[in-house]
């Protein structure tokens, strides 16, 4: 319903003007009928995004872009899944302790359904998504890994389509373009210069991460974002630990052989990659449109490729640059279309129409 629009003081009043049946303006209203029509026809503006959203996005952009480098350095002398388990278990325990000190036991109070949802998302994001990226980076350069992970928003479109929402032609074009880019990025693996298994693991990780992010919108999550993050980290860390032990990563593990820079990389992943950036991401999933949050996927690779080139001297090959550019172009197309069509909705959900007042029974 359009808001009442005050008429100018000298505006003539036409008592004989007929009232439209579908107009909120009464026949005796001082508002001109055409003004009411214009008010109704004006497009509704979505809620404005505050500075906290842009600050959180900046954190995810920069910090997560640098975590690919940190992961690559950590797995130089650390086992893959066990290092991921250490990262998330330590971060989860620190976050849990913070909540207990600041909010008491009430800060961690959740229902059984919310706890189960947090556990599922933690396994999808941190055990499946992040764990496979860590394992893949034992044989894949950090910049290439980040470019492969840029496919996450493309999977979002696929999952949305599976959920019953028909994607727009431009979104489908973006997905197809992104798949072509993934094919170009995978060319070194097909040619034998990069381990194919690592590339396959990272592509699988992108699908699991997209599934976890998509599920966050559909299942009941704890109201307290920090509590949800803590439970996800703890469950995801336990999942990584179980897989690491199942793979036998503990055999022959000697802490004395772990390099100092690997320890520093792990500390960076705990403090910045998990406590800061992951919590910011979890908050953004609730506080900003999903299509806006997904833009991290084409900013992170730029940061990761530059850092890998500057610090680890990772080569910038033709397939890497060409495939990365194609993937990023596809993601940009998907995100731009989604933002134009529904980006103003909060948390990525379409705006709900106002409910009609129901009659009391």
Any descriptors?
361 residues; disordered C terminus; mainly alpha
What class, by secondary structure content?
Answer: mainly alpha
Radius of gyration: 25 Å
Distance from first to last alpha carbon: 25 Å
Largest sheet: none
Low-pLDDT stretches are 1-31, 35-46, 343-361
- Number of helical stretches of at least 4 residues: 14
Shape: globular
- How much β-strand is present in the residues? under 5%
User: Percentage of helical residues?
Assistant: 55-70%
> How would you spell out the order of helices and strands?
HHHHHHHHHHHHHH
Number of strand segments: 0
- What is the average per-residue confidence, as pLDDT, rounded to a whole number? 79
Q: Could you walk me through the main structural features you see in this protein, from its secondary elements to its overall organization?
A:
By secondary structure, the protein is mainly alpha-helical. Helix content is 67%, strand content 0%. It has 14 helices and no strands. It has helices at residues 33-41, 51-74, 80-103, 112-136, 142-149, 152-162, 169-185, 187-191, 196-218, 225-246, 260-287, 290-293, 296-311, 318-342. Helix 5 (142-149) packs parallel to helix 14 (318-342). The longest helix has 28 residues, at 260-287. It is globular and about 55 Å long. The chain starts with 32 loop residues before the first helix and ends in a 19-residue tail after the last helix.
